[in-house]
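Weekly modeling sync, notes
Attendees: S.R. (lead), two postdocs, one rotation student

Agenda item 3: backlog of single-chain predictions. S.R. asked that every request posted to the team notebook include the full sequence so nobody has to chase files. The rotation student volunteered to paste the first one in as an example of the format we agreed on. Action items at the bottom.

Example entry:
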Amino acid sequence: KSDLTAQLAHAEEALDNRNKELEKLKTDWNVQITTLNNKHSALINTEKERAMQIQIELQHKLEKCKEELETSYQKKIVSLEKQIKDLDIACKDLTDHKYRSEAAIRELKAKLRGSEEELRTTHEELNRLRKENCSLDSGKHEQDKIVNQL
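Predicted structure, as returned to the notebook:
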């Protein structure tokens, strides 16, 4: 029985040593897990901060780009509105010039009709005077003949 008691005491001592080793391993394991969790958390926080900083920088770039585009579009709009205004003025001037030209053409056509009518009546008068002149010439020629015969 003493042999068994000694074996039991030895087994219990070995079991205690194994339990102590197991507890030490558990403690070491928990320390390593905690250390890794802390490192992992720190790494995640660092990456979150970096991502947030990148997001802020990109938002600033986006806002700046948006403002530049809006400024560019506003300048383009102002330029196009000025162009439209200039074209409207030019169109109005051309329309006024067209109406004045059409009025001048109507006036000149009326003068041309009057001149053509005057030319026609002048030709008629000229033809009448030529006939009259021919008649007078023949009458004078007859008178000269008569005078010469006398």
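Discussion: group reviewed the output briefly. The first helix runs from residue 2 to 149.
Action items: rotation student to repeat for the remaining queue; S.R. to check formatting next week.
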